[in-house]
C-alpha cells in the first residue's frame, strides 16, 4: 500500500498507511477526556486537557484532509463541517437538558457565535493569510453567493424573526412556529447540500489555476478506501475529544469570566472558538495553498450546517425540554449580523479577494468579541 503524503510530516507510516502520531492522538485524547469528564481539573490535569485539545485539533485536520483527498471536493469540506456540527448539536441539546432556565438562550448564543466566527473570523483570517502570500486570490462567485444567500435566510427565519413574533411573549417561537422554522431550516440546508454535491458540484471546486499551483497536493495518489475509512473513524474520535474537552474546561472558563466580571456569554464564544478550531486550521491551510474556494466552502458550510442542523434538533428536543427557548437576537446582534451580510456580499461579489477585505472581516469579528465582553 502506497504511503500518503502529509505536509510537514515524515513518510514513516504504519497501520493503514497513516503516520504514527495520527493513529496515537485520537485514543490518547479520548483517554484524557474519559479521565477528566465530570471532574474539577487541577493544574496538571488542566495542562493535559489543553494539550489533548490542541493535539486532537491537529489530528482532526490531518484525517479530514486524508478523507477529502479520497472523496474529492466539495465532499471533504462537507464531511468536516457536518462532523463538527453533529457533535456540537448533541452537546448543545445535552447542556440544554441539564441546564434548566439558565440554558434558555444557549442554542441562540452558540449558533450566532458560530455564524460570526465562521463568516468573519475564519473567512477573514483565510483572506488575510492567503492574500499575504498570494496577493490576490480567486474563487467562484456562484458557490459563495448561493451559500451566503442560504445562510442569510436561515439566520433571519430562525434567529431574527422570534424577536418580532407576537404569538408568545419575549424573543420566542410558539410550538407551531418553531416546528415550521425547523422544517424550513432542514429543507434549505438539504437543498444546499444537494446543489453543492450533485446538481452543481463544479461551482464549489477550487479555481483551476489556483489548484494547479499545488501540483503535489492535486496529483498525489489518493489513499485507498480502507485508509479513508480509518481516517474517517479517527476524525470522529478527534472531534468528540475536541468538543468534550472544550466542555470540560468550561467550568474553569466560567470561574475566570466571573472573576473578571465579564458576561457569561463569553464562555459560549470561547467554547465555540475551540470547537471550530479544526475548520479554522483547515481553512487557513487551504488559503496558504491558494485554494480559497476550499476555505470559503469550510467557513460558509460550517455556518450553514450549524444553523440548518441545530434549529431542527432543538425543535425536536423542545418536546421534552422544560422552560422557555429563547431564539431571538437582540438589537446589537442584529446590527452585527446585518453588517456581516452587507460586507460579505461586497466581498463575494467580484470573485477576487484581497488583504483589505480580509482585514474588514477580522475587524467585524473583533467588534463581536469586544461587544460580547463589554456589551
Automatic annotation (TrEMBL):
Residue ranges spanning the membrane: these are 21-37, 43-63, 75-98, 110-129, 141-161, 173-195, 227-247, 259-277, 298-321, 327-348
Localization recorded for this chain is:
Membrane
Query: Which keywords belong to this entry?
Result: Membrane, Transmembrane, Transmembrane helix
Q: Which residues form the Sodium/calcium exchanger membrane region domain?
A: 43-197, 231-372
The UniProt entry lists membrane topology as:
Multi-pass membrane protein
* Xref: InterPro entries: Alkaline_pH_Ca-Antiporter, NaCa_Exmemb
Q: Which domain of life is it from?
A: Bacteria
The protein's name = Ionic transporter y4hA
Amino acid at each position: 500500500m502506497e504511503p500518503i503524503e502529509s505536509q510537514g510530516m515524515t513518510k514513516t507510516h504504519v497501520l493503514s498507511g497513516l503516520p504514527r502520531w495520527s493513529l496515537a492522538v485520537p485514543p490518547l485524547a479520548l483517554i484524557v477526556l474519559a479521565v477528566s469528564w465530570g471532574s474539577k481539573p487541577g493544574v496538571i490535569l488542566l495542562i493535559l486537557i489543553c494539550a489533548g485539545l490542541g493535539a486532537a485539533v491537529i489530528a482532526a485536520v490531518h484525517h479530514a484532509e486524508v478523507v477529502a483527498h479520497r472523496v474529492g471536493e466539495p465532499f471533504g469540506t462537507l464531511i468536516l463541517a457536518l462532523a463538527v456540527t453533529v457533535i456540537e448539536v448533541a452537546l448543545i441539546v445535552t447542556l440544554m437538558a441539564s441546564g434548566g432556565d439558565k440554558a434558555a438562550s444557549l442554542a441562540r448564543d452558540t449558533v450566532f457565535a458560530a455564524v460570526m466566527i465562521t463568516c468573519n473570523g475564519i473567512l477573514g483570517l483565510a483572506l488575510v493569510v492567503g492574500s499575504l502570500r498570494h496577493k490576490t486570490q480567486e474563487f467562484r462567485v456562484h458557490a459563495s453567493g448561493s451559500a451566503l444567500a442560504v445562510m442569510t435566510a436561515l439566520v433571519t427565519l430562525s434567529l431574527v424573526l422570534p424577536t418580532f413574533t407576537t404569538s408568545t411573549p419575549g424573543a420566542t417561537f410558539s410550538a407551531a412556529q418553531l416546528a415550521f422554522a425547523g422544517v424550513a431550516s432542514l429543507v434549505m440546508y438539504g437543498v444546499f447540500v444537494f446543489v453543492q454535491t450533485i446538481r452543481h458540484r463544479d461551482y464549489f471546486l477550487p479555481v483551476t489555476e489556483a489548484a494547479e499551483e499545488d501540483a503535489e497536493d492535486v496529483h498525489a495518489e489518493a489513499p485507498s478506501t480502507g485508509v479513508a475509512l480509518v481516517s474517517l473513524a479517527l476524525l470522529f474520535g478527534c472531534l468528540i475529544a475536541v468538543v468534550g474537552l472544550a466542555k470540560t474546561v468550561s467550568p474553569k472558563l466560567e470561574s475566570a469570566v466571573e472573576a473578571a466580571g465579564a458576561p457569561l456569554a463569553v464562555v459560549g464564544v470561547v467554547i465555540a472558538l475551540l470547537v471550530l478550531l479544526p475548520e479554522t486550521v483547515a481553512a487557513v491551510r487551504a488559503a496558504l495553498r491558494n485554494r480559497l474556494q476550499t476555505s470559503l466552502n469550510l467557513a460558509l458550510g460550517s455556518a450553514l450546517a450549524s444553523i440548518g442542523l441545530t434549529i431542527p434538533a432543538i425543535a425536536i428536543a423542545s418536546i421534552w425540554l422544560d422552560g422557555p427557548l429563547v431564539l431571538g437576537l437582540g438589537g446589537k446582534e442584529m446590527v452585527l449580523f446585518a453588517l456581516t451580510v452587507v460586507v460579505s456580499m461586497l466581498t463575494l461579489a467580484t470573485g477576487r479577494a484581497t488583504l483589505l477585505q480580509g482585514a474588514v472581516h477580522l475587524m467585524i469579528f473583533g467588534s463581536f468579541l469586544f461587544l460580547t465582553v463589554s456589551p
